[in-house]
C-alpha cells in the first residue's frame, strides 16, 4: 500500500487521485476546516483532543453541525492500518471538511447542512519524518495576527497570511516566520505555537493574543508545565524559544539578528509528552 493515501466518498485512493469539485467552497473561498494528527506506533495521538477542537471550530464558524465521532474514528483507524507503518515510523492524518458545493458565484450561503455531510469530508494519511532541527526565524514586517478575529481560533483552509510571512522570511534567508498581533505582542509562527523558557518557567502567549489554541500547548497547560503570559518580542540570551505543533518541535536559535546562547534537546522534550 502507498505511504500517501486518502479517503473520500467512501473510497480509498492514492492522494493524487482524489478529486475536489471546482465548485467546492473550500477550494473557491477557503471555506473549510482541518485537523492534523500525529501517528506514532500506529496510533493517532491525542485523537480525542483533535476531534473536540474540530467540533468547536465548526460551531465557531457557524457550521452548526455535530460531527460523527464514531465514523471518523473508524475511518482513521482503517487508514492507519492501510498506511502500514513500521513502529519506528511516524505518520500524519489530515481531516478536511468544507461547507460543500457552491450554487452561485457569490460567497452567499444558500443552504446550510444541519447534519454532518460525508460528501464534504476527505481524510489524508501520510508517512512523515519528524523534524527536530534548529531554525532561524524572522519577525514578519508585513503580516499581523488579528486577536479579535474568530478566524484566529480555528484551523481554516486559508493559510495565505502564513504563506506571505514565510515568503518574506525566506527572502531574507530565514527558515520561517514569527507573527506578532496588532498590539505588537508575540503571537505564533507560520504553522506553529511558541513556547518560551525563562527563569525556569515555560511560557506561551494566551489565546487572547490571537494564536491558535494548539493541541500540544493545551496539553502542556493542562499538565502544569506551561503558563500563559503576554510576551513582547524582547529576548534574553539564556531564553529557550521553541516552535511546537502536533507534528514537530524545533528550537529557534535566532530571531532576526538576535541569537540565543542555550542549546536544548527538543526531541526528548517533545517525545516525553507523547509516550
Q: At the first level of CATH, what is the class of the largest domain?
A: Alpha Beta
Whole-Å distance between the termini? 27 Å
Report the helical percentage. Answer: 10-25%
Overall mean confidence score, pLDDT:
94
CATH fold type of the largest domain: D-amino Acid Aminotransferase, Chain A, domain 2
* Dominant shape: globular
The CATH superfamily of the largest domain appears as: D-amino Acid Aminotransferase, subunit A, domain 2
Report Rg: 19 Å
Q: Largest sheet at a glance? A: 9 strands, mixed
One letter per element, helices H and strands E, the order comes to EEHEEHHEEEHEEEEHEEEEH
Low-confidence stretches: none
Determine the structural class based on helices, strands and strand pairing: alpha+beta
The CATH architecture of the largest domain can be named as Alpha-Beta Barrel
Protein described:
With 275 residues, this protein is an alpha+beta fold. It has two domains: 125 residues, D-amino Acid Aminotransferase, Chain A, domain 1 (2-Layer Sandwich); 138 residues, D-amino Acid Aminotransferase, subunit A, domain 2 (D-amino Acid Aminotransferase, Chain A, domain 2, Alpha-Beta Barrel). 22% of the residues lie in helices and 32% in strands. The two termini are 27 Å apart. The model has no long low-confidence stretch (mean pLDDT 94).
SSE blueprint:
Blueprint: E1 4-8, E2 11-14, H1 25-29, E3 32-40, E4 43-44, H2 47-60, H3 69-83, E5 90-98, E6 121-128, E7 135-145, H4 160-171, E8 176-181, E9 186-189, E10 193-198, E11 201-204, H5 215-222, E12 226-228, E13 240-245, E14 248-255, E15 258-259, H6 266-272
Parallel strand pairs: 7-8, 7-14, 11-12
Antiparallel strand pairs: 1-2, 1-6, 3-4, 3-5, 5-6, 8-9, 10-11, 10-13, 13-14, 14-15
Amino acid at each position: 500500500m502507498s505511504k500517501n493515501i486518502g479517503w473520500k466518498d467512501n473510497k480509498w485512493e492514492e492522494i493524487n487521485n482524489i478529486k475536489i469539485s471546482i465548485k467546492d467552497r473550500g477550494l473557491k473561498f477557503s471555506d473549510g476546516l482541518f485537523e492534523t494528527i500525529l501517528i506514532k506506533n500506529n496510533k493517532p495521538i491525542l485523537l480525542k483532543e483533535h476531534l473536540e477542537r474540530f467540533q468547536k471550530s465548526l460551531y465557531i464558524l457557524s457550521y452548526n453541525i455535530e460531527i460523527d465521532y464514531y465514523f471518523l474514528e473508524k475511518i482513521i483507524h482503517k487508514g492507519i492500518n492501510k498506511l502500514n507503518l513500521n513502529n519506528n515510523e511516524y505518520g500524519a492524518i489530515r481531516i478536511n471538511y468544507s461547507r460543500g458545493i457552491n450554487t452561485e458565484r457569490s460567497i452567499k450561503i444558500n443552504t446550510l447542512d444541519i447534519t454532518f455531510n460525508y460528501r464534504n469530508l476527505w481524510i489524508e494519511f501520510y508517512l512523515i519524518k519528524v523534524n527536530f532541527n534548529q531554525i532561524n526565524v524572522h519577525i514578519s514586517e508585513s503580516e499581523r495576527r488579528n486577536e479579535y478575529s474568530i478566524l484566529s481560533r480555528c484551523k481554516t483552509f486559508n493559510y495565505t497570511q502564513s504563506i506571505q510571512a514565510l515568503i518574506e522570511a525566506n527572502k531574507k534567508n530565514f527558515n520561517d516566520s514569527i507573527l506578532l498581533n496588532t498590539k505588537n505582542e508575540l503571537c505564533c509562527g507560520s504553522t506553529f505555537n511558541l513556547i518560551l523558557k525563562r527563569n525556569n518557567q515555560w511560557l506561551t502567549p494566551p489565546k487572547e493574543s490571537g494564536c491558535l489554541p494548539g493541541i500540544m500547548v493545551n496539553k502542556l497547560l493542562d499538565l502544569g508545565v506551561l503558563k500563559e503570559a503576554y510576551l513582547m518580542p524582547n529576548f534574553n540570551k539564556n531564553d529557550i524559544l521553541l516552535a511546537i505543533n502536533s507534528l514537530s518541535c524545533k528550537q529557534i536559535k535566532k530571531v532576526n539578528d538576535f541569537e540565543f546562547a542555550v542549546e536544548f534537546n527538543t526531541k526528548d522534550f517533545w517525545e516525553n509528552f507523547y509516550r
